[in-house]
Structure formats: C-alpha cells, structure tokens
Write a structure and sequence with these properties.
CATH superfamily: Aldolase class I
Number of strands: 8
Structural class: alpha/beta
CATH topology: TIM Barrel
CATH class: Alpha Beta
Order of helices and strands: EHEHEHEHHEHHEHHEHEH
Largest sheet: 8 strands, parallel
Shape: globular
Number of helices: 11
C-alpha cells in the first residue's frame, strides 16, 4: 500500500431518512474518532447531506462527506439534478462518479461520466471514480479491456496531478449486492492493472500515490483479507455500511 492512506467509504444508496442518518452518526461517533489512520467517508442521499454535514461539524468527527452523484452543469433546466456548486455549498469533499448502478439503471456512459469527472475536479470536489466489468465480460476475458476503456475515456482531457484529487474504485458489477466477492488476489491483480494504466496515462508518481479501492460485497468478515492485498487501498461499501456496528468493524479492520 506504500504510503497511501487507507479509506473506508460508505455508499448509503437510497437508504436512510435524515433522522436515521443522524442516528447513524450517533452510533459511530466514538468508533470513528479513534486514530486508526483510516480515512472515513460517508455518502448519504441528497436529502440527508446537510444534516449529516452539520452533525459531523457539531461533533467534530473525523468523517468526510460525499455525495452519490452529480450533474456536470453548474445550473440550468435539469429537473431533479444536483450541480457541483450545490455540493460545494454544502461543504462536501467527495462525490461518487460512474457507479455501476448509474451506468446500468440510468444510462450513464463513459462520455457523460467524463463530463462529471471534469466538473467535479474543476470545482475542487474529489471524485470516487467507479469502474468494473459485468459477469459476461469477466467470463469472456474482457475485464482488462473494459476497465481500460472506462478509465481512458472517463479521464480523457483531465490534467494536473490527480494523486490527491481522485480516488478510483474497482467494483466488479457481478459482486455488487450479490454476496459474491472477487477473490482478494484477483481483485488485487485487476487493481494492479489499473495502477499500470494510470502510470501510462499520468506518470509513475501519480500511479504510486493514487488510492484505488475495492467494492463488491465487502463485509466485516472478509475486509481484513481484502485489505491485506498490497494494491488495495480501501473499500467502497454498500450494504455493510448501513449499520453502525458493521461500519465500525470495517473502519477498524486492522
């Protein structure tokens, strides 16, 4: 893992009312304030962002706040969308871009994801950029080329030092919410390929420093094995991040 700081990011998806979100923070407050060296990120639904941000500040918690998605325009006639300016206004640090559910259920493409990544970076937000293959693509031996296209097209035209401004999350689509987990060695191998691609696109130094997470049915009982792999710098977690005790086990995996 070199000198890369581990990260545990909780993607709440379409779960938790504002009241439930604040109650969750109460449940993790003591555990996340231990100096474990792990960066903790929570990504609630839009409706809870303001309350969660205020509560993090009030309690002075060592927790960073992220959104689950955003539009690439600053403002306009885009009913139901949220702009980067709105996220910045709430004091957010991170935003998930290109999650497989956004790609599969809402038609997001490498082109639209590229627009979102550029907009997020232009506004000082740190994208958690998701990539991953379907089961059919994996069984056809296309994992490397699919992910290479997602990264190359997603980051086209992006410049500057990305090592501290971007996080990549490898999420094999067949392992998200299915209970199936990529073997840690296999996930590590794919992430090694991702790091090599980043090296060819942005240089060895960026590739060495950039954090690459694994996501896909990460749970308290498998997180230590996943985190033991040298290329894996953390996890983007779905279901297992929704209960305080489960999330704390992930954060304190060491």
């Amino acid at each position: 893992m070199a000198d890369r700081r581990p990260m545990m990011a909780g993607n709440w998806k379409m779960h938790k009312t504002t009241t439930e979100a604040v109650a969750f923070l109460e449940g993790v407050a003591a555990g996340v304030d231990k100096d474990t060296g792990v960066e903790v990120v929570v990504c609630p639904p839009y409706t809870a962002l303001s309350a969660v941000g205020a509560d993090i500040k009030k309690k002075n918690l060592k927790v960073s706040l992220g959104a689950q998605n955003m539009h690439w325009e600053e403002a306009g006639a885009f009913t139901g969308e949220i702009s980067p300016l709105m996220l910045v206004d709430l004091g957010l640090e991170f935003v998930i871009i290109g999650h497989s559910e956004r790609r599969q259920l809402f038609g997001e493409t490498n082109e639209t994801i590229n627009k979102k990544l550029k907009a997020a970076l232009d506004h000082g937000l740190k994208p958690i950029f998701c990539v991953g293959e379907t089961l059919d693509q994996r069984e056809a031996g296309q994992t490397t080329e699919v992910i290479a296209a997602q990264i190359t097209e997603g980051l086209e035209g992006v410049g500057g030092d990305l090592s501290e401004r971007l996080v990549i999350a490898y999420e094999p689509i067949w392992a998200i919410g299915t209970g199936k987990v990529a073997e840690p060695e296999d996930a590590n191998d794919v992430i090694r390929h991702i790091r090599a691609l980043i090296s060819s696109l942005f240089g060895v130094d960026t590739a060495r420093k950039i954090r690459i997470l694994y996501g896909g049915s990460v749970k308290p009982d498998n997180v230590a094995k996943i985190m033991a792999e040298p290329e894996i710098d953390g996890a983007l977690v779905g279901g297992a991040c929704l209960k305080p005790e489960s999330f704390l086990e992930l954060v304190n995996y060491q």
